Amino acid sequence: MQPASSVGIVVPQTAHFTTPLTLKSGAVLPCYDLVYETYGTLNADKSNAILVCHALSGNHHVAGVYAEHDKKPGWWDNMVGPGKPIDTERFFVIGLNNLGGCHGSTGPASIDPASGQPFGSRFPLVTVEDWVESQTRLADSLGIRQFAAVMGGSLGGMQALHWSIQHPERVRHCLVIASAPKLTAQNIAFNDVARQAILTDPDFHGGDFYAHNTRPRRGLRLARMLGHITYLSDDVMGSKFGRVLRSGAFNYGYDVEFEIESYLRYQGDKFAESFDANTYLLMTKALDYFDPTHHHASGKLSDALKPAQADFLVLSFTSDWRFAPERSREIVKALLDNECRVSYAEITSGHGHDAFLMPDTHYHSLVRAYMERVAS
């Protein structure tokens, strides 16, 4: 039996689009699918809808479970549900799997209608701008002309931010959590090392590994291990694992000896079995490309954010060194330069970048309080 605070058993839906989508790269998707889930009830004037944008390895399964005894709820189940900060008794919440994803939406592993084979290397690169455009089409199909809020953490926060400038009239509130206006050189470097692990895996076959009935598990495993290190803080790794040895003594070899090694390899193996390598490449490139100032001669974030009309909640976490609080403060300053209404909080947390996924009482209280404003 599911707890009262859960949205319960949910069923994914698929929206099929036949109007061609021209991507920022110039490539065109003649048709595509978006898989999504909804929680709560859309009110009569369709004014209570909230769009949740997912991060790099996320998907449409934001909350709830797929079966009565399912032990794996949605990735933000602690945030979304009856009586939770994003209260599904008040709001109609939408989560979707972005284009290029590997959880049902059209992506590299999908069948290309033109060839009858998986897209593989032929699937075009996608950007945050492309995702936002496809999300507007999903909103149109649901009859939603304006969102009460668009929100997300990390890469999801970048999408929320871009919604506010690409379609300012369609967003009343924007929640940007543990995010940044663009990646630092260090972050781009981490992403490139992760991609190189995949690209140089002999089982990658230039992205067309589907035809070889294999997958680049080794490369994807290493990419996830590297990424996972950057999502955690030194304090969390120290408190969870320290220098604990699995056998209590040195074995003087290269197999797993420290608990942290065991943990990272477990996470890497699990991820390599459930995620698509081409999707990982696409998602990290979308992260790299995101930069609202790119097409502005001044190069100023305040100029890029001038179209924004929404009210904002921007949140950061003290131990998040990959999307550090100063990056969130850049967003806040640029919004204030444009006299936008902005609420900002820097939350003390030892969880690193992953803090935005954790059930932290103070963090959830801040989101809950802001959502009271959204509801009113």
What labels describe this entry?
single chain; 376 residues; alpha/beta; Rossmann fold; Rna Polymerase Sigma Factor, Chain: A; 2 domains; 8-stranded mixed sheet; two-stranded antiparallel ribbon; 10 helices
Describe this structure in words.
By secondary structure, the protein is an alpha/beta fold. The protein folds into two domains: 13-182 and 292-375, Rossmann fold (3-Layer(aba) Sandwich); 187-285, Rna Polymerase Sigma Factor, Chain: A (Orthogonal Bundle). Helices cover 33% and strands 14% of the residues. It is built from ten helices and twelve strands. The protein has helices at residues 128-141, 155-166, 185-199, 217-231, 234-240, 259-274, 277-289, 301-304, 325-337, 361-375, and strands spanning 13-17, 21-22, 28-29, 32-39, 49-53, 80-81, 86-87, 92-96, 149-153, 173-177, 311-317, 342-347. The chain has an eight-stranded mixed sheet with strand order 1-4-8-5-9-10-11-12, with helices on both faces. The chain is globular, with a radius of gyration of 21 Å. Substrate binds at residues 224, 354. It is found in: Cytoplasm. InterPro entries: AB_hydrolase_1, AB_hydrolase_fold, HAT_MetX-like.
